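**Folding the chain**
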Amino acid sequence: MKLREIAERTFSIIESGDPEMEIIGAAGLNTAQPGEITFLANPKYTSQVSKTQASAIFLNRNEQIERSDIAILRASDPYLAYTRALRLFHPEKPIQPSVHPSAVIDPSAKISKSVEIMANVVIGKNCEIEENVKIFPNVTIYDDVKIGANTVIHSGVSIREGTKIGKNCVIQNNATIGADGFGYARDENKRWLKIPQVGYVVIEDDVEIGANTTIDRASVGETRIKRGAKIDNLVQVGHSCVVDEDALICAQTGLAGSSYIGKRTILAGQVGIAGHLRIGDDVVITAKSATSHDVEDGKVISGIPAFDNKEWLRAVAVFKRLNEIAKRIRQLEKQVSELSNEQS
């Protein structure tokens, strides 16, 4: 692919280099080879620019490098431009409409002719599968499931009854969508009585769900993952939760039942959210943090229990010095005691 074509399709501008240069791939600074394009988005990696073997590089509008032998493409966001370039070199494989002979599909299911269904897939009663859906081997789809166009379901996924999945979604291996929520009531003998889980899950358009993630059906009503949300591997979304548009939920995070996660909110790895909480829009909860209270829009919080990130950083700095502080307090107490004895 010509450098000029990459510039056009990544919305960047060629500052130096031959527009007719052939670029064969995209890679990071430390792995790029001649003929590939790379990027610099974080100043802490600037030192790697002098060593990279890449033939071209995406830079922001202000970054300067001391290399005359490498083509420079200016972009408002080098990482985004690089991502677009990477997608150019690694496009999705086109659908090959077919149904494997080992697939088991209920006669009542409505399946588009442009769907690719691989080996050992099971599709239940009254399901609807729209055009250009790809379903990999060993997927189980219960009754009354709807899957929108251009969605990809990877191997081992289980989709429970009544689930609705939108367009352009990706569900990674062994995720479970719509399993029973964790709901029990104690009876007169203090034994657990299962609460029927009669709700369902709605996955809106452009959502990606990671491997081995579980999204529970609501006990009544719905659990909803809204448009553009991205959920990592090994995440637990409890019953009746709502994850709003473009939220980002990283690995090993757990949402207790009826949690609401706001638009564009980021939950870093191993975050815990207690039940019935509202986490506002544009919130960031840093890794290994947990909250048992609502969080206002735009807050960045850390710790267990989580509180303002800047205060948490100061508290951590003090915590590391507690032994020293305790020693100084003992010394001060001793000095005060000696002065008191002298005065008496």
